[in-house]
Amino acid sequence: MPDKSPTVARRIARFILMAMGLGVTGIVFGLIGALIGGKVIGGNSVGFGALGLALASIIIGYPAGIIVGIVLIKKILHQRGSLLLGISGSIIGAVIVIALAEPLNLNSNTGLLFGTFLLCVPIFCLSGFLLRK
User: Fold this and answer.
1) Letter string b/e over residues 101-115, b meaning 16 or more CB atoms within 10 A of that residue's CB
2) Total domain count for the chain?
């Protein structure tokens, strides 16, 4: 009788593909949030007010997109997992990166800060989602 359980390589590949899919939905929502946030205050502000709001919209919109992506994975692809742990993993991942930006000196390089943010949020979300599998 052949074993139908997925191999370790398949599980890793599935995890990476799902994390990339979550990242894409997060980026889409982050860009939409940045455009909306920039337009809302862009006409009324002088200086860098629109830039600050656009960055805040990215920081809020990206995890929101990740949460929408994990809900889609659960409902459309019928993957087994815990939505509550996935959503809390997304929020925890975002908070950890923002909270540790100063102590780890991530904020000295914006590419490093946003790269860490873009990687950690979907990984924490997907890890939480698959934790109760």
Assistant:
1) beeeebeeeeeebbe
2) 1
